[in-house]
Amino acid sequence: MNSSQDTIYAQACENISDFQFDEKVAGVFNDMIRRSVPGYGQIIQTLGELAHKYVTPKSHVYDLGCSLGAATLSIRRNIGSRNCTIIAVDNSQSMIERCQENLGAYVSDTPVDLVCGDIRDIKIENASMVVLNFTMQFLAPNDRDALVNKIYKGLKPGGILVLSEKLNFEDSSIQGLLDDLHLDFKRANGYSELEISQKRSSLEHVMKPDTLLQHEMRLKTQGFTHFNLWFQCFNFASMVAIK
Ligand SMILES: C[S@@+](CC[C@H](N)C(=O)[O-])C[C@H]1O[C@@H](n2cnc3c(N)ncnc32)[C@H](O)[C@@H]1O
Ligand SMILES: O=C(O)C(=O)C[C@]1(C(=O)O)C=C[C@@H](O)C=C1
Q1: pLDDT in tens, 142-159
Q2: How many A from CA of 119 to the centre of ligand 2?
Q3: Residue 69 Cα to ligand 1 middle (Å)
Q4: DSSP class per residue in 129-179
């Protein structure tokens, strides 16, 4: 997947506007997410492995907040000949256009319905796998229970939800430590102090992480009986919940 280098926050800006998944971000997103989220590549690869294990014949797979299609591509590579459909949804037109190009670069017998729309509005049915890879943190906190409820109802018995998120921590010492380690990860990937602080300001009102306990409580309240973390690096994690 080609992408230009992310230099969006490299120049000092007087008024930092709220982060948006617009044309500028879509054009550098592959580079941005790999340099910002520790373990992103590992998570994308594992989504393919989970798909191989959990996706059942003639079922639907949902990639909610699909961006450029990295998760969809990984899943599609691993579920050949099962007569499934992947429904990939994003409400950013710029992401959807690039996603379409990325999907078109590979041959596959699994169709992808690419939907430009809000994940709160789409129907979920006959699903054996649902992926929310760093998307729920951008949804208004009050809308999260209803989304998980809809996913639970749309999953077949034995179906899997994979939920990857940045986490918050109740313990301020742990929050500080894991935040620092994340900032060091960004520095090691070439982001300057200016880029780091300007991006942090732009995300402040837009990205609202929950704690691990909040996620666990929400998933269990909405019906999931099996829940665990399968991956964590610093303050980024990926969880699984099975119906
Ligand atoms: C951090 S990115 C997801 C990365 C992607 N899942 C991946 O694995 O590469 C979050 C995406 O969710 C989308 N998004 C945020 N809120 C949304 C909503 N309510 N409905 C649909 N898409 C949404 C954004 O446009 C953005 O592309
Ligand atoms: O916390 C950060 O600095 C991030 O950049 C995180 C994060 C994410 O978790 O989705 C935020 C926005 C971009 O989508 C890429 C990464």
Answers
A1: 999 999 999 999 999 999
A2: 19
A3: 10
A4: EEEEES-GGGS-GGGHHHHHHHHHHHEEEEEEEEEEEE-B-SSHHHHHHHH
